[in-house]
Specification:
Layout lengths: L9 H13 L2 H7 L4 H15 L4 E2 L6 E2 L1 H25 L8 E6 L1 H4 L2 H12 L4 E6 L4 H8 L4 E6 L7 H5 L4 E8 L1 E6 L9 E3 L7 E4 L2 H13 L5 E5 L3 H9 L5 E4 L3 H6 L3 E7 L4 E7 L1 H4 L2 H14 L2
Parallel strand pairs: 3-4, 3-5, 8-12, 9-10
Antiparallel strand pairs: 1-2, 5-13, 6-13, 7-11, 7-12
Helix pairs in contact: 1-2, 1-4, 2-3, 6-13
Length: 308
Amino acid sequence: MDDALRGLDVGALRLLQAIAEHGTLTAAAEALDASQPAVSQHVRRLERRLGTALLDRSGRRVRLTEAGQVLATYGVAVNAAVRAAGAEVAALTGLQAGVVRLAAFPSSSATLVPKALATLRKSHPGLTVTLEEAEPPQSLASLRTGACDLAVAFAYPGVELGRYEDDLSGLVSRHLLDDPTFVALPEDHPRAHQEHLDLADLASETWIAGCPRCRGHLLTAAAGCGFTPDIAYATDDYVAVLSLVAAGLGVALVPGLARRTADRHPGVVVREAAGTSARTVHAVTTPDLLRVPAVAATIEALASAVAF
């Protein structure tokens, strides 16, 4: 092995990744449970062995040089591999222990996720699943950086063409369901009595938009029907969306996973609308983590929850 590469080990790569993530040597040291002088000395030894600077120390916050950024990128992969190895070893006892960090978008965390977690609690009581709400692509970015182990994500056809495929590059996904889209109207809306609508019928309405990806679907669908929606309000919270609709402030597209909530919301009616598309919902993880029994069991529980 080249002498210059002898300093490159798991610890060195994780150290540079921590510096990239936290921005200072002190913060990186705290994250790694090490002292700041030890971290600084480690970096200087590595620079001497490699024959190049890894940090630009000219400002109050250290900045990685190009070489440092390259090594920090590998540090992300090393961290993911270390977590995957540790989780898989822990799961060898037959899922009697283990933690799965799940990121899911709100309408799935209110429907699919509780059913899946209830199933897991019965079948594997020693398994712990933590939940953080996040819309794609943020959830997929968290998966790549190791901030979560499994993401429930979605995409609409024709929206951000190719973007979702790029988001999934290098990851593995399990199709869970095709989730249809409906339109929510105030109960006193002139078209509230119609069971089936065309999106073009609502071209002159004021619109309430959801998350960025849902907003993209609204814009794409409306363009296909020959109009640009007048979006006056935007919120990721479907309860807030429905409250705005009930107050007569506009109409909104809602996914099928949120329909039960919409049907029960006073002052709101939900109708089918031609011209909209169903979104595909997936469970997404990394190839390494897919081999972890706890992660695989969580995916199976999510798939089973769709059947209920």
